[in-house]
Backbone:
């Protein structure tokens, strides 16, 4: 069965880049350009991994991450937060923080390594 990855980023170029980089493996990719319905999408889709930008079209990916990690039905889903914002990587060390962090601009090798690691965990 294919692994399902849900990606949230309000930058269409980043979404396209992530899709093209991750599309070479038989993963089911779903992309969203807003964090508006993130929790309901994640609850419905039950992905194996979430890639999410910290700044999401008026939403804070760290708060969405916290909501996921506080939800007993969703907290097992690994989350990789992505951001170019200075200091955003500190979210990884907070209670209910992400499983990993990827700074923008990201290295493709680092992205793939982090995705494989989280899917294997």
Residues:
């Amino acid at each position: 069965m294919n692994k399902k990855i849900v990606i949230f980023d309000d930058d269409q170029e980043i979404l396209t880049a992530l899709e093209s980089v991750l599309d070479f493996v038989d993963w089911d990719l779903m992309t969203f350009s807003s964090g508006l319905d993130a929790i309901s999408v994640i609850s419905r889709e039950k992905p194996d991994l979430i890639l999410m930008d910290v700044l999401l079209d008026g939403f804070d990916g760290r708060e969405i991450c916290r909501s996921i990690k506080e939800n007993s039905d969703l907290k097992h889903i690994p989350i990789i937060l992505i951001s170019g914002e200075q200091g955003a990587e500190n979210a990884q060390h907070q209670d209910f923080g992400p499983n990993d962090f990827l700074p923008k601009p990201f290295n493709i090798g680092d992205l793939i390594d982090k995705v494989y690691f989280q899917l294997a965990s």
About this structure: The helical segments are 12-22, 38-45, 61-70, 108-120. Residues 14 and 60 are 17 Å apart (CA to CA). The first strand starts at residue 4 and ends at 8. The radius of gyration is 13 Å.
